[in-house]
Each structure stands twice: as structure tokens, then as C-alpha cells.
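seq/struct pair 1
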Amino acid sequence: MPRKAKKKVEKEKPPPKKRGRKPKPKTNVEKPPPKKRGRKPKGGKIIKKNQKLTNTVISKTPNVILHLKCSSEELNNINNNQKEETMILKQKPIQYHKPCILLTTYNESSRTKMYEKRIEWWVENTKLPIYIVDSFNTGFDTLLEKYKSTNRLFCYKFDQKKFIRSRRFHQTKYEILSLKQAYEHFKSDWDKYTLIIKVTGKYVLPRFDTLIDEIPVENDFLVQYKHKIRWQNTEYLGFKLEKMLKILGELDDSMVFERTLRPLLDKYKTKRLGLIYIPKEYRTPTKQGFTYSSL
């Protein structure tokens, strides 16, 4: 006999489990505030105005005992002498140089008009006494006659070839010769002055008389603004009269004048002026082709 199939008894399925976190049991306790996460915000701080603190500094003066081998009268005499010296220094006025101009020229025919124009400018635009030394032995007779009434224009001429015949000498030798010849010729007249300012004859210097008006007597040199480490331009150059010959004797005539002058400035007290601008109509090129707009 075939077996009878057993009847399946269907069991009841349990309810499905809830997914996720289980809820925490509810309590009456208050929850703490949530924690702050992330970066702290940058904000300003409220600063209270500080009150001024008044610190009372108590100065403690130490007790010092000096054993001096002198009397109180001697100390009083020293103090009185010091006061007198300071009063003398305050009352002593500053002495300034009395300057004059020395124009150096080589008046060959091609340069005569150029030189005459510059000399006229110096006489008409300054109140300084003008001395001229011409090493070409030509001179400026017409200008001397024209400005005779001013009594401020003087000229000395000589032929430098009679003194230096060889061409092997450096140009510096001619420049030093010209300055020495001017000194020997004008020295009796130069006793009225303390500063001799040599200016190359093709240059004019506006406001120059006011710039050199207050140069202390202690200065031995007056030099122009333009210079280098081992080079001092000499388009104009001032000498203290009493030291002029000594300085000229210390120059090395086998070197360029600007180069041999530079180390001497460290030995003597020197006054350097600022830049002086040259008017366009008076700008003249040098032998090297340079045209200076200022000195």
C-alpha cells in the first residue's frame, strides 16, 4: 500500500528584525550640549583699555667717597677756567675764505672767440676778481681794455714752449707749470685772498660766487662734485693760498693730473661742492669728446 504523505505543519514565522541602531532607553536626565567640531572660527578679541600705570622710580644714589690730593680752591679755579674757555669758543666767529678766480687758457686762434665769451660771462655775472693765465702767450688785450673800469680783470701771458721743449712730458707738467707761473706773477696781488680757485677757461659756473661765499678757512682744498675712487675731476679746483706751492710740489707730473691729485685729498682738509649745471650755450666738448652738462 502506498504511503500516505505527511501533512506539513506550517509554523508561524517570527516578525522580521528591525534594522539600524537600537533606540536608547528614554530617561528624564537632560542631555549635555553637543561637542563643537571642526576648526575654531577666527574672530576679534575685545580688549579693555589699560589704565596708565604710574611707576614711581626711586633713584638710589650711592655714597661715593673720593680722596683727592688737592684743595677745594684748586677745584674751583679749574671750573672757572673751563667756563671761560667755553665762553671764548662761543664768542669766536667762524672765519671764511676770501676767494678769487684763476682762468687757465691756451689762447690759440681757434679758441679765442670761445674764451672771450666765457671771460665776459665771468666779469658780468659775478662780483669775483678774475685773473687769467694764458700759456700760449697771446693774452686778451681787447677785454682788458673793455673792462678796465671794473678793476677786476687781470691777465698774465707766457709761452710754455720756452719752459718745456720736449713733447715727451705729460700734459700734467704743462698744467702745473701754468699754475706756478700764475702764482709767481700774481703773488703780491693775491695777498688779499686766501683761496685761489683755478677754473678751466672754457667753463662758466652759475651761482658760483654764492656757493663759495662761506667756505671755512680751515679747508685746504675746494673740489668739484664729480669724482671716482682714484680720480678727481679738475675742471675747477681751489687751493688754500699758503699751501698752494707745497701742494703743487707734491703732484707727480708723470701721471694724469686728476689721478695724482686724488690721494692728496686724504692728507688735507677738503670741501666738496654739489653739482653745478652749465647753460647749454656754454657747453664745450673736451679733447676726448665728452660734453659736460654739469660739474
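seq/struct pair 2
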Amino acid sequence: MKEIRPLQSWHEIDPDYIRRMIRRRKTRIDSVVDVTTSDNFNLRIKPLLVVDRKIISGIETKLRNKVGEFIRTKASSMPFDQFIVYMFSPQISNDIFEEIKTIYPTRKIEIRKSEILRNFKKDIENKDETQVEEEQIDAGVA
């Protein structure tokens, strides 16, 4: 199976900032969520949750699944440029907090890293151009 490599790392939070958030008696919950926007951009979003106390793994899993589901639904309902603005705004943290506060309250929610995996729009455009060139060669035009 071929590994999917990111085309471009969009942004990343400084490791020192993360280290300052994570202290003793806190739980760090990392997640990796692959999403597709409404205009067919594939992104890999890596959210980070910080909880004030040590929690059991079952709650960690529920939080991770709920955050992944929330980000996927938001991304699929927005075009790429609108989702990027939403992702960099503090609104995404507030919305995620509202979704998961019934499971367990979190201290901090950040989007740790995001990467662009693929743009299917460009692939389709490139495919159309190569098909046109092939048709011209077959017809003897080029």
C-alpha cells in the first residue's frame, strides 16, 4: 500500500507552546483527521486537546472520535478557503468545546498542524488537458 504524503504543510504550532500547555497531572489528546472540503481539497488536520486531569482511555477515545466527526462535518460543508479561515479563527475551538463538554470539559483546544494532501480539482483539470492533447495527437492536429 502506498503511503499518502502531504503536498504542503500548511501550518504548525511551535513545540515550545505545546510544551508549556502540557504540565503534570494533565492529559494530552492528539488526533489525526483526514477531511475533504466541499470543493474536493483533501486536508489532514491534527487537533490537540488538553484536559486538566488524568483521564481514562475510554474518555480519550470518545473525545477523539467526537472531535474527528465534528471537523469532518464542518470541512465537508465548507469550501477550502472558507474552512481555512474558520480553522485559524478561535471559533473552531469554541465550537469543538461546545460539542465535547458533555463528555469531559477541556482546558485548551488547538489545531496543532494542518497539511494539504491533494486537490482533486487540479487532478481533474490536468487530466482534461492531457486527454485533449492525446485526442489532438490521435487526430493528427498537433
